[in-house]
Amino acid sequence: MQQEVLSKQLDILALLHDVSNSLKGISLIANQLIDGAYGYSLEEIRPFLLALRDTNDRGMNLLEANKVSGEVKPVALAQFDMLSFLQKTSSLFQPIAQYHSLKMHYETQSSYKHGTQVRGDSISIDRMLCNIVTNAIKYTRRGDIFLRLLNQEDDLVIEIEDTGIGIATDQLSNIFIPLWRSPTVGGTPSPNSNLLHQSGMGLGLYIALCVAHAHGLSMRVDSVVKQGTKFTIIFPYKDDGIYGVDGTMPPKSPRRQDALPI
After folding, report:
1. What is the DSSP annotation of the chain?
2. Average pLDDT rounded to a whole number, residues 173-199
3. What is the pLDDT of residues 99-119, one digit of tens each?
4. Are 32 and 48 in contact (CB under 8 A)?
């Protein structure tokens, strides 16, 4: 009973965490627009107005999808194109990366073996990706953030890589534990922590892992201190020609950390 209560509390905190991130993104972009950081003509600021609208829609969709239970789990399965989905994610984070003097890159292949159609809960997958990209920006002082869509044999793979401060080997086993936070990574203070998500809850990667496991995805993290971190998310190819999950979701693990072998 106590375990169920704690799990429920974590799910509610996770929802608050992601909605808060959306609101902070809206505030950041809006303030930059007011200050003229992106220009003043409609042509100049249009991409950032679109990012502002999409960030707002993301928060509203998240609240609507989780208004009953608030659980970190898929709500509705649908088929969508991951190629355009990631393009939108990249556009959403472009102004935030720019604010921190970082370059956001979206890299794709010229063709894909089985296309780029994915079956899953797009709102949950968005939560997974946005939390990882947010962390990449948060822990990168200078350089680049890469968002990639690739094929590995038959599978579809998303890579999120940064040139940030990296994660020490002895901390890799902790980063997916809910509410775990470290003031330093690899002995170096978080460079953008005073600008981005000042009240971080230590839930972003936990949420990402929960979503990956609920969709039957594999997730891997590789990191080198002072060089950067790369998250790899693998969408398994299905015989019906669609990546992702089947018609039903896999059962929830009693230990969500089991979804990622470290």
Report:
1. -HHHHHHHHHHHHHHHHHHHHHHHHHHHHHHHHHTTTT-SSHHHHHHHHHHHHHHHHHHHHHHHHTSSS--SS----EEEEHHHHHHHHHHHHHHHHHHTTEEEEEEE-S--BTBSEEEE-HHHHHHHHHHHHHHHHHT-SSEEEEEEEEEETTEEEEEEEE-S----GGGTTTTTSTT---SEETTEE-TTTTTS-TT--S-HHHHHHHHHHHTT-EEEEEEETTTEEEEEEEE-B-TTS-EE--SSPPPPPSSGGGGS--
2. 58
3. 999 999 999 999 999 999 999
4. yes
| Structure token pair of residue 181 | 């936070």
CA distance 48 to 111: 29
Helix (H, G, I), strand (E, B) or coil at 248: coil
- What DSSP element (H or E) covers 117? strand 117-120
pTM across the whole model = 0.82
Distance, CA of 190 to CA of 201 (rounded, Å)? 14
DSSP single-letter state for residue 72: S
CA–CA dist 44, 33 (Å, integer): 10
State how far the alpha carbon of 244 is from the alpha carbons of 80, 191, 249, in Å: 10, 35, 10
Q: Which residue in this structure is represented by tokens 């979804």?
A: 259
Contact 74, 113 (CB under 8 A): no
Span 116-134, pLDDT tens digits: 999 999 999 999 999 999 9
3-state secondary structure of 249: coil
